[in-house]
Hints:
- This protein is an all-alpha fold and 57 residues long.
Amino acid sequence: MIVLIALLLLALVLLGFGFVAHLLWIAAAVVLIVWILGFARHRHGRSGGRRYAGNRR
């Protein structure tokens, strides 16, 4: 009986790790897409190469 409970708990833990790993892969893909879009937006923007030049007089 204890072995069965231990196996069920192990199955739940492994299932939880698999679910979390899947969510982390999805989050990493979303972050990568946003990062690439940020580079593309900055590259085609109007800034003259300096992003944080400030107000120099």
